[in-house]
Amino acid sequence: MEGVLCIDKPAGMTSHDVVARVRRAVGGPRRGKRRRKVGHAGTLDPDATGLLLVLVGRSTRLVPYLQASRKTYEATVALGRRTDTLDASGAVLAEVDASAVTEEWLCEAAKELTGTIAQVPPMVSAVRVDGERLHERARRGEEVEREAREVTVHDLIVEDFVPGPTASASLLVTCSAGTYVRSLAADLGERLGVGGHLSQLRRLGSGRFSVDDAWTLEQIEELAAEGALSSALLDPADAVADFPSVAVDAQGAVAVGHGKTLPHTGHEGTVAAVDGDGRLLAMLEDDGSVARPRMVLAPADGTSEETR
Predict the structure, then answer these.
(1) CA spacing 20 to 30 A to 181: which of 59, 111, 122, 153?
(2) CATH superfamily ID and name for 244-308
(3) Is 8 an annotated catalytic residue?
(4) Given the residues 8, 45, 87, 286, the one annotated as active site
């Protein structure tokens, strides 16, 4: 059993909590003291909801490829109130009357945050500084210097605006991987001169995946109990269908399984290698002359991971 599950994460759970519940549902035979691998691509904060990609079995090797995809969010920003975590879970640092903010002014500020921008990771993020995650240092009350990172905000669309002393803005955000929407919310508030924080966040999409196709954890557990969980699992080849692909023959499949290079595929960059049946064998990196396997999914001898 392997593949990708689209989960609609509820509020109040960490991404790790979701993985733990899926792991219990998947079960399966133990290999020594280990259960079947389960992981996720793209962390969601506990208060956030929406699409979380959970990968099962050898498909966990696809995490770097799915994690790097473009993301789409529905975000609500509370203007006029700054918090120490940049979201609703933090302590209020300052409150300002935001009654003067207009929708036109808001839209102009949103435009200024569109495109390639420099963003400083928040102290509550999982970024490591000097070997320790920032959120661990934040819990101790520490504030450390962080380097700004380039991210791309493809679209920042104002969908709704409610004026008032604590104004509220509903945004549709499409951005590159690694973008902190809570930082966007705080930056938007600063540009408007009133401060702000992220009050709600829901991930609508990640790459080719949509929350409209996602399952609840309860549905996943019901399917597992009925022995029908495979019906919810997306095939690994379908999961990386956004990448160009190349079909390889039996000889090429053995070569890829042993980590050997292949001739130029006709594409440059990341390429999915599939066999004649469309089964994903590996992810290649093609430099224009040869293609080198960077992640091998199928063993060279054709056996499954469970029997090796």
Answers:
(1) 59
(2) PUA domain (2.30.130.10)
(3) no
(4) 45
